[in-house]
Design goal:
The protein is an alpha/beta fold. The chain is built from 21 helices and 14 strands. The chain has helices at residues 2-8, 19-27, 77-85, 97-131, 157-171, 173-177, 197-207, 227-241, 269-283, 304-307, 323-334, 345-350, 357-373, 381-393, 403-423, 458-479, 487-502, 535-562, 564-577, 582-591, 601-628, and strands at residues 15-16, 31-38, 46-56, 64-74, 89-91, 139-141, 186-190, 212-216, 245-250, 290-296, 314-317, 428-434, 444-449, 579-581. Helix 11 (323-334) crosses helix 13, helix 15 (403-423) packs across helix 19 (564-577) and helix 15 crosses helix 20.
Length: 641
């Protein structure tokens, strides 16, 4: 390339002039000297000419100065003869060998380079990938990035105590070995989704000053037989080299599912991977300082050989947090959110039983989003409650309904609310009633637990059935007819009654389990089992279920007829405000009217419109007062300011 550039760049920085001007200057004797180079790239009679041109200049003694020039173009025979006869030009032969050689080699070299890049490099990468195909995908966590400590994990104190022993062992293993004790080789964390199993493992990684390898159970599963087993062996080899260390396997049920399950054979990739995992864990010695931690929310499908002592010999159950745990979790997540002074985290924790840690974090986040949507500076209590309703029951849908549908929905929900206000006293209280569609329902009667419900008595269960029947009766009392809107209520009541008879022994049939013994194939169990029920027993079960539901239907009908006036007032309040709280229903039942302020989406919207109208009136009044202050003109017309 340098040679080609040199060949085409004769003359350097000289002034470029047309070839015709060179011929004219030669005839006029203004050429001092020059050189002629044939240029075969331009064709026949094509030349490059360089030299020096005399330019008149009175400031110089000679009367002219020399200016370098260059030109390229065609020279016919007559023009070339003029340059020769001037004897000012030196003729040079063209050196075409090297440019021609390079012109032929460069395309060939380019093709070779492209082929190398496309094929040879890809083959090398493929070879390297083939060699690393069976390598472990475990990632070494760095403690400096996104560090999580036990202070950020709340609501599972017992689990924290269990895993804290692991950290103590890694920091001072001789303390346990001196007493002859051994730290568990494997710790399996079990719990519902969102309870903080993976977060607890991250906290262990943040607290323990040892290497922490993290991998998902799905990373072992591949299409090719033997790859998963190879990755298991490589992962444990990494652990031995980095001991003492922790290896965390998330969602281990992806690879640890029971062997020989279903209709297939036992020689598939997943089972070979599990076999390799069992062998590697059994071959580990705790003195090496390598501890396996795993998490799953499906311990029922894990292979029994994986759960035996010597492998995962400690099971840490991380359940749903209780009242105190929920409050602590809310305190952890509330540090990142601007909360108003009226926000009471204890009340939020009390009204959210059954929420996991992830649900509580999502609750505060949804409240913050709602407050930002309303252009508020802080998150208020009403935003948190709206977010809770959205998460639990779905978002409000402003579906267009005519007055007839609204009235039927109002009396349906009023029937539920009236029964709930009359029966629910201790564990459960009526939270809110609305005729605004949420989720797939046209209206909702929302109840919340006042405490963590660990079990329900027979009286509480039949109260639930009675409350479910109230919606259908409310429709029938008002309209003389009923709709299919009570389908889910009937299904829920029937399921509770069937469980009472078949599973919980709450019927004259006695404390006998008549439950269904079918198992699902995908759980790794048997497809089905025989039912040890005679036709007579099945008939008696159906009769008992029907008796329980019918009895509670009659009970609900009697309660609503005795409180007919309260039913009408609750329905009218729903038609007026669209949403009322449980305390308002209780006030109607006890006092015959609503005595406290109703705060709902409709009332907030009306309040906002009133404030906007008042602001507009205030601006108009200010403008009129300003106009009145302007003095009138002399001719009586209003003056212009």
């Amino acid at each position: 390339m340098a040679v080609l550039w040199y060949q085409t760049d004769k003359g350097g920085d000289a002034n470029e002039i047309p070839m015709y001007d060179v011929v004219v200057a030669t005839e006029e004797g203004r050429i001092e000297k020059g050189k002629i180079y044939p240029n075969p790239n331009g064709g026949n009679n094509y030349y490059d000419v360089i030299g020096e041109l005399r330019v008149p200049d009175d400031t110089v003694e000679s009367g002219y100065r020399l200016v370098p020039f260059k030109a390229d173009g065609k020279l016919v025979d007559d023009q070339y003869e003029i340059l020769q006869k001037s004897k000012k030009f030196e003729e040079n032969e063209s050196n075409t060998f090297l440019p021609q050689l390079l012109a032929g080699l460069i395309p060939f070299l380019l093709v070779i380079g492209i082929l190398y890049f496309l094929f040879v490099r890809q083959l090398r990468m493929a070879g390297r990938g083939a060699l690393s195909f069976g390598k472990s995908k475990a990632k070494l966590l760095t403690r400096d990035k996104d560090k999580v400590t036990f202070n950020e994990v709340a609501g599972c104190d017992e689990a924290k105590e269990e895993v804290s022993e692991v950290i103590d062992f890694l920091k001072d293993p001789k303390k346990f070995q001196r007493m002859g004790g051994k730290i568990p080789k494997g710790i399996l964390m079990v719990g519902p989704p969102g309870t903080g199993k993976t977060l607890l493992a991250k906290a262990v990684a943040g607290e323990a000053e040892v290497p922490f390898f993290s991998i998902s159970g799905s990373d072992f599963v591949e299409m090719f037989v033997g790859v998963g087993a190879s990755r298991v062996r490589d992962m444990f080899e990494q652990g031995r080299k980095s001991a003492p260390c922790l290896i965390f396997i998330d969602e281990i049920d992806a690879v640890g599912r029971q062997r020989g399950a279903g209709l297939g054979g036992g020689n598939d990739e997943r089972e070979q991977t599990l076999n390799s995992l069992l062998v590697e864990m059994d071959g580990f010695d705790t003195t090496e300082g390598v501890i396996i931690m795993a998490a799953t929310n499906r311990p029922d499908v894990l292979d029994k050989a994986l759960l035996r002592p010597g492998r995962f010999d400690r099971e840490v159950v991380i359940g749903l947090p209780d009242l105190k745990g929920r409050e602590e979790i809310l305190k952890v997540h509330a540090k990142r959110i601007k909360l108003s002074e009226d926000v009471n985290l204890e009340d939020i924790a009390r009204s959210s039983p059954g929420f996991a840690g992830a649900d509580l974090a999502n609750l505060l986040n949804e409240g913050a989003l709602m407050a930002a949507r309303k252009n508020k500076k802080q998150v208020e209590m009403i935003d948190i409650y709206e977010a809770k309703d959205k998460i639990s029951f779905g978002r409000e849908r402003r579906q267009l309904m005519d007055e007839e549908d609204k009235r039927m929905t109002a009396f349906h929900e009023a029937g539920h609310a009236l029964i709930a206000a009359l029966l629910y006293k201790k564990k459960i209280k009526l939270h809110k009633v609305t005729i605004i569609p949420r989720g797939r329902a046209l209206g909702l009667t929302m109840s919340t637990a006042t405490k963590d419900i660990l079990g329900q008595s027979k009286k509480e269960l039949v109260d639930d059935i009675c409350m479910a029947m109230g919606g259908r009766i409310g429709e029938e009392v008002e309209t003389g007819d009923f709709s299919n809107g009570a389908a889910m209520d009937i299904k829920q009541a029937t399921n509770i009654a069937r469980h009472m008879v078949c599973d919980w022994g709450m019927s004259p049939l006695g404390p006998i389990a008549f439950g269904d013994n079918e198992e699902h194939l995908f759980l790794g169990r048997e497809i089905s089992k025989t039912h040890n029920l005679s036709e007579e027993t099945a008939k008696r079960i159906d009769e008992e279920v029907s008796r329980i539901v019918t009895t509670q239907f009659d009970r609900a009908q009697k309660l609503i007829e005795e409180n007919r006036e309260a039913l009408t007032k609750i329905a009218e309040a729903l038609l007026e405000f669209e949403t009322i709280e449980g305390k308002h229903v209780q006030e109607i039942v006890e006092h015959g009217e609503i005595r406290s302020e109703v705060v709902s989406t409709k009332t907030e919207e009306l309040k906002r419109k009133q404030e906007e109208a008042a602001e507009e009136d205030s601006e108009e009044k200010k403008a009129s007062d300003k106009n009145e202050d302007i003095p009138p003109a002399v001719d009586g017309a209003q003056a212009m300011a």
